[in-house]
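User: Show me a protein chain along with its predicted structure.
Assistant: Here is one chain, sequence first, then structure tokens.
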Amino acid sequence: MFSKRMIFVAVVIILVAVNVILLTITGKHTQTPSGLGRGALVIVSPFQKHLTTFVQSVKDTWNQYFFLVSTAKENQRLKKALGQSLQQLNRCSETDLANDRLRHLLGFEEAIVRPMIAAQVVGKDPSPWSKTVIVDKGTQDGVRQGDPVVIPEGIAGVIVEASARYAKVLLLIDPNSAVDALVQQTRARGIVKGGGAGYCVFDYVLRKHEISVGDTVVSSGLDGVFPKGLRVGHISEIVRLNAGIFQKVSVTPYVDFEILEEVFIISEPASEDLPGEL
């Protein structure tokens, strides 16, 4: 049994052969075509027409195939170039954002009189109970345990461990953190402790002190760790109990610890710079 495709190929071959034979016969007569030549011409012409159409169709299909292949390659090249451009744009955007943050930090650095060490957050404790981060500065950079860690928005935490090149920061929101603080407007004093979930509690605030939601809480400087006047947060909730001498106060930190990237470590001045030293 012959397939339709084989029959079609055979017919094309026969048509081509007949076309060639007839063209050969008519091509030998240079004079005006005789009856045989005219008959051959009548027979050959339709075959030639269909053969020419077929060949042109094959040629067009072949050219279109190569055009599509070329277009696909060009499309691939353009996609790759677009991806590279987007990556470059993203790097530029990150650089711009980093420059903005650094300018912000530099402006804050000029307002602090004690020496400050700029550091970058390079790690975060995944534990839900401990709120700590790792920074890329250590003892060889002058960092010591107990140094305050701040950003322009406010207090971030305190150094609790330090190696030669890295240090661990206990964040303000950690339950083990504590800052002696006062309300900036009324000077009501208390201890700000970490709440462990993005907020702090303001303990030991006497009921007799008038405080309001939105009041700013700053460091008092009496704990010997944080310099006086550093921003801690704002009062977000007040509960005045019927019994007891203290109010129950919640404080929302000014620092957004989820996006903390760069910090300043406030170091102690050299002993020769301290007043009263001989």
